[in-house]
Write a structure and sequence with these properties.
Helix content: 40-55%
Largest sheet: 4 strands, mixed
Strand order of the largest sheet: 4-3-6-5
Number of domains: 1
Bound molecules: fe (ii) ion
CATH topology: Phenylalanine Hydroxylase
CATH class: Mainly Alpha
Oligomer: single chain
Shape: globular
Length: about 250
């Protein structure tokens, strides 16, 4: 297992932005505040309001951390982009969520191939202020740390992450709402998810672990949870599914 000393410290990264990046953020924020009212889950919206994320100006990590302190012991840390899997799990296990410093350009308003600051902050941070959701993310990361030497299990964890934290849908009062970060920060993806002909599978950890994911175009299927409790309770099932998927015991 990695120690905290082995997690790279990116405090030196500067949050300095061009006029184009500032404009892109403002535009994204304006679209976001409308989209989420119509399509995000009620739990997400509560957290979004509590953190006052409706900001026309680019949010700085220290400022975000100050807001987080009022609600949770989770914090965020600056990173240059996608974090290697071991570091990602290690950070989450320390209740630190990595935030990409870069902000997408105007030409990527509708879709940004790589995660950017807007995606990370708006897509992944809000629900962390819920004690139950924060605990779930921490427990998920601890599970991940057990499988670092098992590539097949890591693939299963990646798929689970994708179909929940990124593309997760939840049933709320006979409506489908989004809680996954990639859905919440993409208008196209949110609209796609609401299309009737796009397949919605009931929440199934076994099926998620065994279903390939596509990352370069709109999803052809999503998984729908009946409640957040169903999500929070699924980790033992995920662990046994990973073991069956890989036919191997986790490495300690
Ligand atoms: Fe993401």
């Amino acid at each position: 297992m990695l120690t905290s000393q082995e997690v790279t410290n990116y405090d030196f990264l500067r949050e300095e932005y061009t006029d184009e990046q500032r404009q892109a953020w403002t535009l994204l924020n304006q679209k976001q505040r409308i989209m989420i009212q119509e399509q995000a889950s009620a739990s997400y919206l509560e957290c979004y309001d509590a953190l006052q994320l409706d900001s026309e100006e680019i949010i700085l990590v220290e400022n975000l951390n100050e807001r987080l302190r009022a609600h949770t012991d989770w914090q965020t840390v600056k990173v240059p982009g996608l974090v290697p899997t071991p570091e990602f799990f290690q950070l989450l296990s320390q209740k630190k969520y990595p935030i990409t410093v870069a902000v997408r350009g105007i030409h990527e308003i509708e879709y940004s191939e790589l995660p950017d600051k807007f995606h990370d902050i708006h897509g992944h941070v809000p629900m962390l202020i819920r004690q139950d959701f924060g605990d779930f993310v921490e427990q998920f990361s601890q599970l991940g740390l057990q499988y670092l030497d098992n590539p097949e299990a890591l693939m299963g964890l990646e798929r689970f992450y994708w179909y929940t934290f990124e593309m997760g849908l939840i049933k709320e009062q006979n409506d489908l709402r989004c809680y996954g970060g990639a859905l919440i920060t993409s208008k196209q993806e949110m609209e796609n998810a609401r299309e009737e002909q796009v397949q919605k599978f009931p929440f199934s950890v076994d099926k998620m672990v065994n279903t390939d994911r596509v990352i370069d175009h709109l999803q052809e299927h999503y998984f729908v949870t009946d409640s957040l409790a169903e999500l929070f309770d699924c980790l033992p099932r995920l662990e046994s599914s990973l073991n069956r998927f890989t036919f191997a015991a986790p490495l300690q």
